[in-house]
């Protein structure tokens, strides 16, 4: 009996020690905050070795979580990866540190398509990490017609087999694009018309999903879906029947970016990291492994032929010319939100 | 008397610091305004509260309550016999039973829920088995329906019902039951008049835990329901995240907490009065 | 001791166990599936187990989660037991107020709890990390423990305790030999709930975590965008096997050579 009590005490002491350990590393650390598995693991290890530093890699699940956390005072991170519209919001809210390009000479390797984007005109705060375009993925086993327009989603033959992204701005933006309008309009009448149009699509919708749309298309639960180009490539690798198209009305382009939050304690190291990642060879190795488009123009010769030939990863100039970034809609966000809640409430 | 009041002091301090203070902040925010960037600004108003009475939000709250009551009822019906069985098994079996029921829930919630997706999908195991036995001709669309959501909810919250029920059943005075059967009472009668009233504290705790947890859970609706219906907590979450309207999110939370407390009090009262009646009836 | 269970009850319990374990069986099976995303079986492999042990992020998240779960369970079980015992002796009005207060952490939406605690920690200049996550977990787990133990106490009454003190037992003796054995199943059930909640919490942990305190749920939610790796299935399989083995061993050790089983469950 006595022994048990001692064992309990020892256990408690050990726990406290484990809690306190972890704090004592002398190496400089780079605290990265991003999605899980967003980098090739070997590339990270190589950086640690080369610069004799330690990388702490913590993860969030979406942009909104990231913003709420940083805004409420969650700090201690040196490098974050917000998407395009979130970069714009974070700049407005003064949450980002300007990048010192002298520490990032490799930034010139980035393709002109992704330089100076509308959400951060002079790349003052951010540099692109990866990017894609929202288009339509469809399974040619079930969808026999040629798909070319967003309007094809409304085809009654696909009733109950349509999957839409679970994303307010993307989907209302899609309906706006279908009507030939900007995906970021602040004209309430235009938004209302687009939402009314989406309501007529609702009976066809199997599910709203952003994260698991890949699995749903691979497993052929859905026949036709709004999908990001990078995900479409993953789907097609697992299910060769699935094709992908950027509709003629054009789609929404998005990107995930590098940015440094205010209050970072290792800003220079974060910049060194960005520069390292933009090295052509490192870049090729990294994107080969994560399977998204490499914005690094000098990296092309280091990529495999298979990667360079993947049409869903490397979109053509013509396809990219038809795309539009999601702009900040200011106070109209409340209108978008109210409509989206209505669409998804399953009522009426 | 004095001593016990002292021993509760750390708990009260803890709750004041980490619960009451943050809650007061939330109540404060619910009366404030916001700018277009979503920053909370000092501007006392009741707009966030009046916005709740939009039929859209009221309707979603009603749906949430209906689903939660259904989940609680089903959980209770399924768990009571199971908890009864465990409580009446040998002492070794009791520990095993409890632990065996809890362990699956140490597996991450998302992983468990995705496992249900694999089971229920059109080409999933359940459909294949039904097809093989010729019970159905066409695969059933089970996923992304209300039924799938209900199933997922019940599955998720079973331990929250079984554990409190076990705690109450285990302590039941079994001599009373023996006496009842000696006096010729049927099994059913003695269950209704003796077992049930004696375990009402377990029913109460389990039901409250399941009800409250269901109202707060929305990932199940997203994954198994295909995000086609919303729960009040979806709305609260999206006000803090996507819509960047913290005052409205806070107001919804305050309303949510108050209505839940009222529901618990009502349920408690209903259960107590029923017990009184059975006592008088005897 | 003769079992008083009706055979129908046994069948029902068996069906319930199958219901609870069917998804688990799936998770285990898919930890051996060679394809990362496809739902169909595409070949048997041990690869996920091998890569799991090489994945430092998963391992770190797992150890964070376990440390947080164990510490917060221990503390919240003690605090929850104290408050459940103390509330009995409070006046009627205090009882309602204090009871309501203890229900709050169960009711409050996770996101409110997470965000408000984050704001609070920020005000106190408290560095975010495992300690802040533990504090948050204790705050909600304590309530669950309290509620479950109260369930037990309601049915117990205090005649036995009064008798003990009439017979001259001190406060500690009464607690140790009368109260504790009676509420012990409640403590176990409460601790099980606390441990389960802590191990599975995402939203609250997310907001109060800091650099290098990513827990397993945070990691898994972060993976969703790219697709959860079967490594996680492998990890879940190992977790289940290890917990079942540990509990089996503990039972075996406790029961060995002891006649009085109820006594030996108590560690002191």
From TrEMBL, chain A:
Residues 1-26 form the signal peptide. It holds the Pfam family SBP_bac_8. Its main location: periplasm. GO terms for biological process: polyamine transport. Spermidine binds at residues 85, 167-170. GO terms for cellular component: periplasmic space. It comes from the Bacteria. It is found in: Periplasm. GO terms for molecular function: polyamine binding. Keywords: Periplasm, Signal, Transport. InterPro entries: SBP, Sperm_putr-bd. Gene3D superfamilies: Periplasmic binding protein-like II (3.40.190.10). This is Spermidine/putrescine ABC transporter substrate-binding protein. It comes from Paenibacillus anaericanus.
TrEMBL record, chain B:
Residues 61-267 form the ABC transmembrane type-1 domain. It is a multi-pass membrane protein. Belongs to the binding-protein-dependent transport system permease family. CysTW subfamily. The chain crosses the membrane at residues 12-32, 60-86, 98-119, 148-169, 208-226, 246-267. One of its GO terms (biological process) is transmembrane transport. It holds the Pfam family BPD_transp_1. CDD domains: TM_PBP2 (cd06261). This is ABC transporter permease. Keywords: Cell membrane, Membrane, Transmembrane, Transmembrane helix, Transport. It comes from the Bacteria. It is found in: Cell membrane. GO terms for cellular component: plasma membrane. The lineage of its organism: Bacteria, Bacillati, Bacillota, Bacilli, Bacillales.
UniProtKB/TrEMBL annotation, chain C:
The keyword Cell membrane applies. Residues 62-250 form the ABC transmembrane type-1 domain. Its main location: membrane. It is found in: Cell membrane. It is a multi-pass membrane protein. Belongs to the binding-protein-dependent transport system permease family. CysTW subfamily. This is ABC transporter permease. It comes from Paenibacillus anaericanus.
């Amino acid at each position: 009996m006595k022994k048990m009590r001692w064992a309990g005490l020892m256990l408690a002491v050990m726990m406290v020690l484990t809690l306190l350990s972890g704090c004592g590393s002398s190496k400089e650390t780079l605290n990265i905050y991003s999605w899980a598995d967003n980098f090739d693991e070997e590339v990270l290890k190589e950086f640690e070795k080369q610069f004799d530093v330690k990388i702490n890699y913590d993860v969030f699940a979406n942009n909104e979580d990231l913003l709420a956390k940083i805004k409420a005072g969650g700090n201690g991170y040196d490098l974050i990866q917000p998407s395009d519209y979130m970069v714009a919001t974070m700049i407005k809210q003064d949450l980002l540190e300007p990048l010192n390009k002298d520490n990032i000479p490799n930034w010139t390797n980035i393709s002109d398509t992704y330089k100076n984007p509308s959400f951060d005109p002079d790349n003052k705060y951010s540099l692109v990490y990866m990017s894609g375009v929202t288009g339509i993925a469809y399974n040619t086993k079930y969808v026999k017609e040629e798909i070319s327009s967003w309007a094809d989603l409304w085809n009654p033959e696909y009733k109950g087999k349509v999957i839409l992204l679970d994303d307010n701005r993307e989907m209302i933006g899609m309906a706006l694009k279908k009507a030939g309008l900007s995906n970021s309009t602040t004209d309430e009448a235009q938004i209302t018309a687009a939402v009314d149009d989406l309501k007529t699509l609702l009976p066809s919708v199997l599910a709203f999903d952003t994260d698991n749309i890949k699995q749903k298309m691979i497993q052929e639960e859905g026949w036709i879906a709004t999908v990001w180009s990078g995900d479409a490539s993953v789907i097609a690798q697992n299910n060769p029947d699935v094709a992908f198209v950027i509709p003629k009305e054009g789609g929404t382009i998005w990107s995930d970016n590098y940015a440094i939050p205010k209050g970072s304690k290792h800003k220079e190291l974060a910049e060194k990291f960005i520069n390292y990642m933009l090295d052509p060879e490192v870049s090729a190795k990294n994107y080969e492994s994560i399977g998204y488009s490499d914005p690094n123009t000098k990296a092309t010769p280091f990529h495999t032929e298979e990667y360079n030939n993947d049409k869903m990863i490397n979109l053509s100039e013509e396809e990219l010319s038809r795309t539009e970034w999601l702009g900040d809609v200011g106070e109209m966000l409340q209108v978008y939100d109210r409509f989206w809640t209505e669409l998804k409430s399953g009522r009426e | 008397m004095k001593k016990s009041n002292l021993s509760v002091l750390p708990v009260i301090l803890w709750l004041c610091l980490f619960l009451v203070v943050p809650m007061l902040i939330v109540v404060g925010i619910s009366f404030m305004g916001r700018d277009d960037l979503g920053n909370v600004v000092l501007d006392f108003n009741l707009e966030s509260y009046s916005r709740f009475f939009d039929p859209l939000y009221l309707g979603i709250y009603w749906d949430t309550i209906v689903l939660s009551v259904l989940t609680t009822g089903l959980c209770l019906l399924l768990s009571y016999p199971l908890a009864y069985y465990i409580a009446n098994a040998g002492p070794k079996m009791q520990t095993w039973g409890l632990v065996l029921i809890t362990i699956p829930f140490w597996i991450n919630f998302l992983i468990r829920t995705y496992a249900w997706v694999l089971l229920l999908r059109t080409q999933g195991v359940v459909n294949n088995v039904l097809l093989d036995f010729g019970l159905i001709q066409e695969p059933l669309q089970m996923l992304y329906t209300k039924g799938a959501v209900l199933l997922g909810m019940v599955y998720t919250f079973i331990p929250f019902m079984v554990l409190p029920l076990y705690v109450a059943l285990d302590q039941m005075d079994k001599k009373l039951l023996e006496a009842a059967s000696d006096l010729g009472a049927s099994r059913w009668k003695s269950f209704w008049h003796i077992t049930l009233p004696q375990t009402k504290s377990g029913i109460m705790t389990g039901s409250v835990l399941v009800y409250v947890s269901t109202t707060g859970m929305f990932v199940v609706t997203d994954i198994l329901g295909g995000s086609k219906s919303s729960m009040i907590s979806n709305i609260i979450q999206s006000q803090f995240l996507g819509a960047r309207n913290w005052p409205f999110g806070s107001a919804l939370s305050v309303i949510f907490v108050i209505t839940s407390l009222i529901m618990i009090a009502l349920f408690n009262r209903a259960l107590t009065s029923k017990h009184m009646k059975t006592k008088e009836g005897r | 001791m003769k079992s008083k269970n009706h055979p129908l009850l046994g069948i029902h319990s068996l069906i319930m166990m199958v219901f609870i374990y069917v998804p688990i069986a799936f998770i285990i099976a898919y930890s051996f599936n060679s394809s990362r995303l496809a739902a169909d079986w595409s070949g048997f492999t041990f690869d996920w187990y091998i890569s799991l042990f090489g994945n430092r992020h998963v391992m770190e998240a797992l150890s964070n989660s376990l440390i947080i779960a164990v510490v917060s369970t221990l503390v919240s079980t003690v605090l929850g037991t104290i408050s459940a015992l103390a509330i009995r002796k409070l006046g009627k009005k205090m009882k309602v107020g204090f009871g309501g207060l203890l229900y709050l952490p169960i009711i409050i939406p996770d996101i409110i709890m997470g965000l408000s605690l984050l704001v609070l920690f920020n005000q106190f200049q408290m560095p975010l990390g495992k300690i802040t996550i533990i504090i948050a977990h204790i705050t909600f787990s304590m309530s669950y423990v309290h509620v479950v133990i109260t369930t037990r106490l309601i049915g117990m009454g205090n005649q036995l305790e009064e008798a003990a003190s009439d017979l001259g037992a001190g406060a500690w003796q009464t607690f140790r030999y009368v109260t504790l054995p009676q509420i012990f199943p409640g403590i176990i059930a409460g601790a099980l709930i606390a441990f389960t909640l802590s191990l599975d919490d995402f939203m609250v942990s997310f907001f109060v975590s800091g650099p290098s305190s990513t827990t397993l749920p945070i990691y898994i939610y972060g993976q969703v965008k790219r697709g959860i790796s079967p490594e996680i299935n492998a990890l879940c399989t190992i977790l289940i096997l290890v917990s079942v083995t540990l509990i089996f061993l503990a039972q075996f050790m406790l029961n060995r050579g002891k006649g009085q089983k109820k006594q030996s469950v108590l560690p002191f």
